[in-house]
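Record 1 of the preview.
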Amino acid sequence: MRLSIWKRTVTLGLLIALASVLVACGEDADEATPYRIGVMESLTGAGETYGTVAHQAKVMAVDEINAAGGVDGRRLELVVEDSKCNAQDAINAYKKLTDVDGMKIILGTSCSGAMLGVAPLAEADGVILFSGLASNPDIADAGDYIFRTQISDIEVGIRTGDALWVDGIRTLATITEETDYAEGVRRTTVARFEENGGTVVAAERFGSDVTDFRSQLTKLFEANPDALHVTPQAEFAAGTIIKQARELGYAGPIYGDTITVGTTSLEIAGDAATGVKAITAAPDPNNAKTQSVLADFRQRYDYITLPWHLGSAYDTVYIAAECLGQTGDDQDADGFRDCLYDITWSGALGNDYSFDADGEVVGLSRVVVEVLPVAERTKDNYGYKVLSGG
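->
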């Protein structure tokens, strides 16, 4: 009997010791398991230039975080899919990330149409969709799991409409790419311009596959507008429209948005872009963090386009890391959502910005810029000078 009791006691002691070892191993394994979050950017398609720069900025941010020890000792890992700047491909990318990879937190998308296509699925599934680039006003109503660091195009439209009026523009011609982003900018700009008393005398739209705009531009110029408003989805279209407008002999003012003053757009347009005005979010030259991020990106990749988009994508990763540190679980979308609602952040985009009840960024604003002559464009001024705002 005593031997039996001793055997049971020893066996129980061994089991307890073994259990302790297994628990310890489990804890070590958990610490070694990376936090995995999805990424949806337009690596191809109309948004390729800024989708690529956004993806690269996110990779840089992740490398920095992991080099500094990760998130509470756990590495951060991105699972990337190409949303191709359209709704259907974005839906395919979303389903891959959620159904196959099990993602509950997704950073993206680059383009508004892709964001609007995926948002209803993410909202129904309880999956976080956190974009650094998509700006269509309708995204504000997309749901409780939808957030963005990008500023809504409502502000772009108001600022553009006011800038046109202040500059003495009373009649306007518009050329707009047939995408949700471009249409959102056109719609809000025209609404403000007409509210101020202006008149749109001609309007043209074009598909994303169009490369020659001279026929449409000719029609617009026949209406003899005071100014031309260009709203593209792609930098390639922006630069080509501006170049062809000048080649046709149009000498009037041209107004645009962020895409029209991207590096690729200005390279295509060349001298033709000189004097173009745009309402965009521009990096603060006096913000040390902003300038450090841009310098690090340039050193790493040897180029920059759309620097504010770059910084926006970069910040989403650091904000995600902060919220993962709070929740301790990359499957806790609700906890991540609550973290975003409560957070106040200072990063590459600026200091002390936050998110309102619609997931819209608060505390950031855009500026009016004017493109410089080619000889005055440098890597430090990105080809333009800031006229007002900020």
